[in-house]
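Incident review: delayed structure delivery

Summary: a single-chain prediction request sat in the queue longer than the usual turnaround. Root cause was a stuck worker, restarted by the on-call engineer. No data loss occurred. The affected request and its eventual output are reproduced below so the record is complete for anyone auditing the incident later.

Affected input:
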Amino acid sequence: MLTSIITVCFNSEKTIKRTMDSVLSQTVAPYEYIIIDGKSTDGTLNIIEEYRPLFSAKGIKLVLTSEKDDGIYDAMNKGIDRAEGDIVGIINSDDYYEPEAVEVMEDTFKKTGCDLAFADIRMHMTNGVTFIKKAKVRKYTTSRDWNHPTQFVSSEIYKKYRFKCRDISDDMDLYFRIKKAGYKIVAVNRVLANFTMGGVSNRIPLSEVKERIMRRYRIYRENGYSRLYIFECVAFEIIKYVMT
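Output delivered after worker restart:
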């Protein structure tokens, strides 16, 4: 089984080393590491090139594309288009994997025959406090159960599904569409990634909370969930605002 890892970035010189180090330190090396850069103007590209010999020494193919894009999910779609692996993981340049992430996910796909798998994640708040967000798959899905940085998806599924590039909740929408279609999804109760709060999905002014609530609610409704999920959306966005 071959694994492709994708990182999208833009002016990420302060954080991308940690992300790249986490890919290099995997107990089972991925087949390739694809970086989709949005035409960075800081030192990001220089850092990536400095790492190229390290990836070569590990036998990991490093693929770098730097060009303008239409947002984070357009960049992710570009990475998926370039991926050659059997399974694909996406880790953003603010976040990083635990060393056994690829090994555990390859083993999970082999043993279960799943189409998509995700795991527990360690959340890092801006005040230094951390907590574990558990992974669950249940009939009445909420985004509280699901952790995108830990998610790995079969390349066969990505041939049928792409991010819609509508707004910051596109990752949640894609997960819900795959689940709605009846594909096999597995939750791994082990921390496989770390998420840094305060990134693009968290930095929001109070004035935009209502809009984000309605975006999330639209995704629930489009995927066949009850109107009662409005309460889930309100609670989720308010908690996120308070914690960041």
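Verification: Residues 229-243 form the longest helix (15 residues).
Action items: add queue-age alerting; document worker restart procedure.
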